[in-house]
Specification:
It is built from 11 helices and 17 strands. The protein has about 475 residues and is an alpha/beta fold. The strands form 3 sheets. A 7-stranded parallel sheet has the order 1-2-3-4-5-6-7. The protein has a 7-stranded antiparallel sheet with strand order 13-12-15-10-9-8-16. Strands 14-11-17 form a 3-stranded antiparallel sheet, with no helix packed on it.
Length: about 475
């Protein structure tokens, strides 16, 4: 959860495992290499997170004017900005001193933020340099961080993916990997990073596809050990009457859809191989001009959106899983989480009409858990659970967020479940199991097709019987 320090009491209820803080170089060291000011995130806030059992992840950004490289062509000599490419010696010295200051408190470090936002006029732009410049930035940080503690982890900046995809450019990560792997020294230093990070929003199934593509990309470069984090995600509502968007949003989502997204994105991102997932963010504010919509699970007045309860469902029921498997059964998405002696099956409907489903039971009884946090018992009948899945509400016209998800929480392992004879589309998480879910109702289009096919079949049979009767019995 981004910025849990905005409301520690609410964060304690949500119980996220980690939080991210941004540390601004130009605030800590504004006047020169010998300067050292208090951080923009005061120590008591960090200590409070740690005391609550949350890991703190540090993200370093923003070049002070004195540290910019005066000879770099990307830096305007008449207009210094925090996006400028720094002098690498000054940068390395700062990183080492910063990491030493937080040694024992921060173990994971992210180097910069969204350098793939290439339009310098966009409010989300943070980096004036090229991909080659960024490689030098994180290599310098890597060596200085590992010099303090070789067990510390260093992550590439969170990337947006879509700034390249929509403009038909090679993915920024692929360009970085080309540069890194061309360096003959890179394998010796584990390619200078420990993991890749993405910031992806709104569309759970699309997020699954993107993260799966990133996993394949890293594997193709022989980097199977590199972790993937989804470090920012959300589906900020466009129709909250208490806190509407600042201006017309690109995508539309209701308050309910934001809450359903919380469960759907965690299920699918984990299934795609994400090691960590982080919601942006806990509390709404206006300090970021790129925030077209108020993202927070808490509004500016600290009132709670439905997504608050849905996120609490995630941390309550999905935490501690050991294996996750995704089944694509047409209109019904199914993700199965295996925990020690417990299985949590997450289901939702992506169609515009309801779906009746049966799920092969592991135990004789289970709990149904809803996005609101409400629960109810369910009993298997002849080894099956049977219930309805409501439709997607499709506020944007495109049903990119499915309908209300349901969690089935059972004692036991999926190995104890007798599979039905349905072949699923299985995710990169390998599994020989068919889907545990059978969709009993069909779409109106299929229903019409079945009706027509049956009508034709009856007509053919009736015609054949009439011909036999007329030929053999009326002769």
């Amino acid at each position: 959860m981004v910025q849990t320090f905005d409301d520690f009491e609410a964060a304690a209820e949500l119980n996220p495992g980690f939080t991210r803080i941004k540390l601004y170089w130009d605030i800590i060291q504004p006047n020169g290499p010998d300067d050292w000011q208090p951080s923009n995130v005061p120590d008591p806030l960090i200590e409070a997170d740690l005391a609550a059992g949350r890991e703190v992840v540090g993200l370093i950004v923003r070049t002070p004017a004195w540290a910019r490289d005066p000879n770099h062509p990307a830096n305007d000599p008449n207009n210094p900005t925090a996006k400028d490419v720094p002098d690498m010696a000054a940068w390395g010295n700062f990183v080492r001193r910063l990491v030493e200051q937080y040694d024992g408190r921060i173990h994971h470090w992210i180097i910069w933020n969204e350098p793939d936002v290439w339009d310098s006029h966009h409010p989300g732009s943070t980096w004036n340099g090229t991909p080659e410049d960024y490689v030098e930035l994180f290599k310098t940080a890597y060596f200085n961080i590992k010099a303090v503690d070789p067990t510390m982890k260093v992550y590439l900046a969170g990337l947006t993916y879509w700034w390249d995809d929509e403009y038909k450019q090679p993915q920024y990560l692929a360009r970085l990997l080309d540069i890194i792997t061309a360096d003959p020294e890179a394998p010796k230093y584990d390619y200078y990073f420990d993991g890749a990070i993405y910031h992806l929003y709104y569309k759970p199934h699309q997020i699954y596809d993107v993260l799966s593509n990133i996993r394949r990309l890293l594997d193709r470069y022989g980097m199977q050990d590199k972790s993937i984090w989804l470090n920012e995600t959300n589906a900020p509502p466009s129709s909250d009457p208490l806190e509407p968007p600042h201006r017309e949003p690109r995508f539309k989502a209701s308050l309910d859809e934001q809450s359903w997204f919380m469960i759907q994105v965690h299920a699918l991102a984990f299934a795609a191989g994400a090691e960590r997932i982080q919601i942006y963010k806990l509390f709404n504010s206006t300090d970021h001009p790129e925030d077209v919509q108020p993202f927070g699970l808490l509004r500016g007045d600290k009132s709670r959106r439905p997504a608050f309860d849905a996120y609490r469902v995630v941390t309550t029921y999905l935490a501690g899983f050991e294996k996750v498997t995704y089944f694509d059964r047409g209109d019904v998405t199914t993700v199965v989480f295996e925990k020690p002696n417990e299985t949590v099956t997450v289901l939702w409907n992506v169609a515009r009409t309801p779906r009746d489903v049966t799920v092969n039971a592991i135990a004789n009884e289970a709990r149904l858990v809803y996005a609101t946090g409400e629960t109810e018992p369910i009993t298997a009948e002849r080894g099956l659970y049977h219930f309805d899945l409501p439709p997607a509400t499709c506020s944007d016209g495109d049903c990119f967020i499915g309908g209300p998800p349901v969690l089935i929480v059972e004692t036991g392992s999926p190995d104890q479940r007798q599979p039905i004879a349905v072949q699923p589309t299985v995710t990169p998480t390998p599994t020989p199991l068919p889907s545990p879910v059978e969709i009993l109702s069909v779409s109106p289009r299929r229903r019409t097709a079945y009706f027509i096919a049956n009508l034709i079949g009856f007509a053919v049979v009736f015609g054949a019987l009439w011909w036999v009767k007329s030929k053999w019995f009326d002769a």
